[in-house]
Structures are given as C-alpha cells and as structure tokens.
Amino acid sequence: MTANGGTHGAIVIGAGVAGLTAAAELAERGIATALVDDGFLGGLITNVGKLEGVEGEAESGPDLVNTLLERALVAGADYRMGAVTALQQDGALWHLPEQEAAGPAIIFATGAALKQLGVPGETELAGRGVSQCAFCDGGLYRDKDVLVVGGGDAAFQEALHLAEHCASVTVAIRGPAPRARVDFVERIRAHSNVHVRTGIDVRAIIGTEGVDAIRLHDQASGSEKDHPIAAVFPFIGLTPQTALAPPEAKRNADGALTVGATMQTTLPGLYAIGAARADHGGAIADAVADAVAAAQAIAS
Ligand SMILES: Cc1cc2nc3c(=O)[nH]c(=O)nc-3n(C[C@H](O)[C@H](O)[C@H](O)COP(=O)(O)OP(=O)(O)OC[C@H]3O[C@@H](n4cnc5c(N)ncnc54)[C@H](O)[C@@H]3O)c2cc1C
C-alpha cells in the first residue's frame, strides 16, 4: 500500500514503445509503477525488421523493445502480463480489479491496431497471402508480384522492404497522392520494380488456397479489373485502442483520447500517450516524448 492508499503511484496499461518508456521514466523517478500488457509486448514495432528514424543502437523493433523492457525492469517497474478489461474509479484512485492494482495516475499506452480493408477475401485469406507484416512474410513471395495498400509511412516502409525480395511491388493508394514522408517517396522512386498507383480502391481479394488476384477499381476511368498477384499487404491506417477508457473521457473522431500538454486526458489522473492519444505524431520519437511528458507531470 502506498501513501495515497493505492498499490502503486502510477499504472501504465500497454507495453509498446510509449508504455515501456513511461514505466522506465516513472520508476527512475522513484514512483512505484505497474506496467500491464496483454502479451503483445512491443506493440506495433514488434514485427519491424529495420527501424527508420531511431537514434541509438537498436536496428530492429525487437532490439528496441528488449532495450526498453530491460530499462523499465532495471528501474524497478512491476511488469504484469494480462489484458486489462476492467477499469474503475473510486475517488482519486483508479483501480484495475483483475490485476488487484490501484493508483492515483493511470496511463493509457494501449496504442492502436492496424485497420483492415473490409473487402471480400481478406479474412478468408489472412495468413495465406494477406499479411500485415512485410518483414515476417516478404521472403515467402520472393520473385513474385505483390501489392501494398496505403499511402502513408507504414505502407511505404513495408513496400521498400518488399522491393528487395519481390519481382514487382504495386502500391495502391486511394487518394490522389502519397502521404508518406518525402524521403520514403523518393526512395520508392529509386526502385524500378515498384509502381505507385493513385486513385485506386481495392474491391476484393481473390483466391482459394492462397491469393491469386486483387480486384481494383480505378477512380479515373471507373473500370474494375482483376490483377494477378501472390500477396497483398494492407497498411491503411490505425484504430486507437481506447475502448477501456471511461466514455466521459473526450476523444477525437477516430476514438483517440484528447490530451493536454502533460498528456492528461479530460479526466483527472487519466493520461494517454503514443498511438492511443489524439494528434500522436506517428513516430517512435513522438511516443517517447509523450511518455517523458506524462512521467514528468505525474512525478511533479
Ligand atoms: C508497420 C509499421 C512500421 C513502423 N515503423 C516505424 C519506424 O521504423 N520508425 C518509427 O519511428 N515509427 C514506426 N512506426 C510507428 C510506431 O510503431 C508507433 O508510433 C509506436 O510504436 C506507437 O507505440 P505505442 O506504444 O503508442 O503503441 P503500440 O505499439 O500499439 O503498443 C500498445 C501496447 O498496448 C497493448 N495493449 C493494448 N490494449 C491493452 C489492454 N487492454 N491491456 C493490456 N495491454 C494492452 C498492446 O498489446 C501493445 O503491446 C511504425 C508503425 C507501423 C504500423
């Protein structure tokens, strides 16, 4: 029991980059900190083979996760496995009944999930040609034709990786132009086997044992055509995982929690950082900065 009557000074939900960093920052400031994760340690970067824009020695997502986890554990964070499905407020304390943990500050570092296309064939062929991890599955499609859906950083980063393995990579973008970082777009242009198509909607993924083709609708011509491909990699954005937060906490249109400069939400003692919060910058460095800001605010 701590001086405030809780089991911990702060509780962090989610052990992605944001949560791991927050737990380390809090514990290093002498705050008894619980870190609870549903077992998907590392979150979105777990499958990233080569990180972009990250300072330090970590080259891959798993390298960085190991470094961050070690830092949090050495600092004394109380790491617990298990999905948090219940959150209660009692006066100034937040309770996680399943974890038998309570504290005056709770940080939502629950991140985001990759969006699905929602077209016929996607669920049926998941793991058999439909993949959201180029680093895990790209090698399976060596010298084959594949398609990436999406125009943001993640789509371009994964397409760059696939370009090293595959005969051709088509990047299908629904909008009129890529939204990815300029350097990603320039690097993609340098690959003669990558073709970027804009104004394209995916209508269906076709196949039985594996992916045989993809049905694309060309917005300019209005035509719909099946293109033979061996795999499709959808990276069309993220859905913040914030269902657990009380409904009174303000959210943006995507469901991400609205925060101020200290990362506190509209509810006292409830913080949100990284991909779970509105206006997240999108990169690992942004998640780290959020974690530091929240830890500073809670410790002060
Ligand atoms: C394909 C891809 C590649 C990327 N590559 C790069 C890159 O090279 N460089 C870069 O700077 N950025 C990159 N990014 C962006 C970067 O991954 C994110 O900005 C960052 O990882 C967000 O971290 P997070 O901790 O906020 O969320 P997440 O990584 O989503 O972590 C959230 C964690 O919370 C857990 N969780 C969720 N709900 C619960 C619950 N109820 N109970 C317990 N645990 C829960 C999840 O399982 C997960 O472990 C990439 C993103 C994608 C999608």
How would you characterize the overall build of this protein?
The chain contains 6 helices and 17 strands. It is of the alpha/beta class and 300 residues long. It has 2 domains: 10-114 and 238-299, FAD/NAD(P)-binding domain (3-Layer(bba) Sandwich); 134-234, FAD/NAD(P)-binding domain, CATH 3.50.50.60. Helix 1 (17-28) links the parallel strand 1 (10-13) and strand 2 (33-37). Helix 1 (17-28) packs parallel to helix 6. The model has no long low-confidence stretch (mean pLDDT 95).
Order of helices and strands: EHEHEEEEEEHEHEHEEEEEEEH
**pLDDT < 50 runs, ≥5 residues:** none
Helix-strand category: alpha/beta
How big is the Rg? 21 Å
- Structural domain tally: 2
**Name of the CATH first level of the largest domain:** Alpha Beta
Ligands and ions found: flavin-adenine dinucleotide
